[in-house]
Amino acid sequence: LDAWLKEICLQWKENLLTDLENEVALFLTSTEAGAPSSSFSPYDCSSMIGEAVAGKSRAVKYGKFYEIEIGMDVDEAKTPHKQKSLSLIETGTPMSISKSEGKSVIKKNSRYVPLDSYKMVCVIGKGSFGKVLIACRSSNNLNFYSPKKNNKSTSEPVAIKVLSIAEMISRKQATRVDVERQCLEKAESPFIVSLHGAYRTNTHLYFVQDYCAAGELYFHLERNGYFSNKLSRFYAAECVLALEHLHSLGIVYRDLKPENIMLDVNGHIKLVDFGLAKLGVYDVASGTKSFVGTTEYLSPEMINKRGHGLAVDWWALGMVLYEMLAGLPPWYSEDKQEVMNGVLHSPLKFTSKISNPARNLLSGLLQRIPQRRLGSQRGAAEIKEDQYFASINWAYLANKRIKPPFIPKLGNSCDTSYFDDSFTSLCTKINEKVTREEEKLIQQSLHLFQGFQYSNIS
């Protein structure tokens, strides 16, 4: 069957995949009698369709169309009368697998790339649930470079975030993983990391995202101590555009901090890590009540646990801008309780490094009452109009027509000079072994990751 198809287009119905415990049928039909039909688990079916998009698997040509039906049981699929429900898709239009709010949908002008097409190159980050690696597509011969050397890659690198399913479930983080995938699927901004694919194996979840070769903003702050007014303004302005886009989608980010602001190869910012984001929030001061985030960047309303909304992101922007200009956030302490007490009660003080226009902006962003906070009346428009950003041409900035003040110096596309050696020295191998207890936990929770797979590669 593999030889039957090199190029295929698929139309996915809203009810494509049933519960993971059930079986679905992939019914293949052709003009020839006795066309095969088979029954697969939904996960196998999803993988097979993905391979079909890549030209590696099963479909049957019918004239200049391909006929495919998903969701029937085998007996029903064999019924001739059901042929009328088959979708005839003209070849030549690239499409790929996706999922949105529990429904399977299609991403146009893109194609499916199987997970095993990627070769893991180097670890660039590690956390409680897994790690982040650089990867390149193995269809190109990748035995050609060391990330530290000045040689050219024939494949554009990506970052792959690998999460342990057992860890996510045991720590009750499964829902947040799905929220992150939904946020990344919805967001389309040059200042937010793009999601190229989401995959699930028996033990891990994989997010394939943009690789930001210049590392975290935090890395550069640590190295330099603080930033110039010009550089701080540039990064803050791009953050404003990223947050404006998220808020227009009803997404409150809730985790703006230097560790989650990445720099790409050209020096532009991209926000990453949407595990704490919340969908369906449109009010500035209400919409959600969960207590999440990093202590130094928590807003007063978050600390008070009285409910919060989009305004928490403008507070965090003020904290990050202050840190870029001064080297530390206001009210900083190693004692978390002292930090929260400062946020709630202590006056905002400025160092001599911070200019008057910056002080005025920070005073507006770090207003303790969310309804009075800059950005709470007219959103990002208020912040864009502030005197501190008077030199910014926002239309040019949105189209990346303003040259970043800092241009990263990279030897090649997989250079890891801007990542900590404690990460890059780690083994790239993903441990697929699990204990019996972990395996049982995973099997009991498969429904949490129904339809997780996603592809959006042009």
UniProtKB/TrEMBL annotation:
Chain segments annotated as coiled-coil in the UniProt record: none
PROSITE patterns: AGC_KINASE_CTER, PROTEIN_KINASE_ATP, PROTEIN_KINASE_DOM, PROTEIN_KINASE_ST
Domain Protein kinase, chain residue ranges per copy: 118-389
Keyword tags: ATP-binding, Kinase, Nucleotide-binding, Phosphoprotein, Serine/threonine-protein kinase, Transferase
Annotated binding of ATP, by residue: 149
GO molecular function: ATP binding; protein serine/threonine kinase activity
Ranges of residues in domain AGC-kinase C-terminal: 390-458
Biological source species: Aplanochytrium stocchinoi
Name this polypeptide is given: Protein kinase domain-containing protein
Family statement drawn from the similarity comment of this UniProt entry: Belongs to the protein kinase superfamily.
InterPro entries, A to Z: AGC-kinase_C, Kinase-like_dom_sf, Prot_kinase_dom, Protein_kinase_ATP_BS, Ser/Thr_kinase_AS
